[in-house]
């Protein structure tokens, strides 16, 4: 046995390919009315709307969890990655938007529940019981007036705002992943360049070490002591200057070697810092990837919120148009009468479901 929702989807898919005949509409509406009179189907219907409330609570928790995660990111790694602060601020904006929409959806659910009760017990009751053209015109005017009512302080495009927020969240996830990947590539390039510089410095230091040590062994023997302590005329003076020249070269090589070693230490420290940032970035990516289920909850939940207010107020205007167009109660199409009956059959479970949704959200 298929559910009411499955039948509706199947009919919608079929009618997209081929417009329904009047008999198709009548069959569908008749079955829907019979289903909605079934207590089990009513419970399923109310349960589906109540699930929106549960989804809303889960979504609220997901927004808060991600918000706390980005606050932690900035606190722990903001100095290494200044761009994190921008993403934190963006998420805070989304969370604030969600909080506003959630409150508005709760208020709208309460208002819609009361409003639909009036729609059912007053306006649809009148439509079902019109006796002549005059009453039909009066009913049409009343429905038109009702259809133009707007909830105070609540945007009628709230469902679109939910979808806009859903798109913002999905775009945020992609852009943050792109940001992390860009940082990863940049750090990888820095590490590669630093390693190349370190390898080059090590080779230079090895070369300087090889040049310094042999000359140092030759110039540091007894002769150099003799040269600096003995002075017996021009012959020895000549020898002294000949031996001093290698000593000066050795000192120059040693100084250059010390300079390269200092550069090496600085580059090694820079590489260690880059490696630390790479580890930090890997941690950020791992934590953000772990938030993917929460982002999926947000996206799927936001796409579920439907603007029931707009739906039945739009339906009221459609009913008004039919009543204006037909000439007498006897000429009202059967499909129209069945639509009115279905709308009235749905009224009670819909009111209860909307109240349950609002109560589930509570004071969030």
From TrEMBL:
**What are the coiled-coil residue ranges?**
177-211
Q: Please tell me the species this chain comes from.
A: Hydnomerulius pinastri MD-312
Q: Report the protein name in the record.
A: Unplaced genomic scaffold scaffold_16, whole genome shotgun sequence
Determine if Coiled coil is one of this entry's keywords. yes
Which keywords does this Swiss-Prot/TrEMBL entry list? Answer: Coiled coil
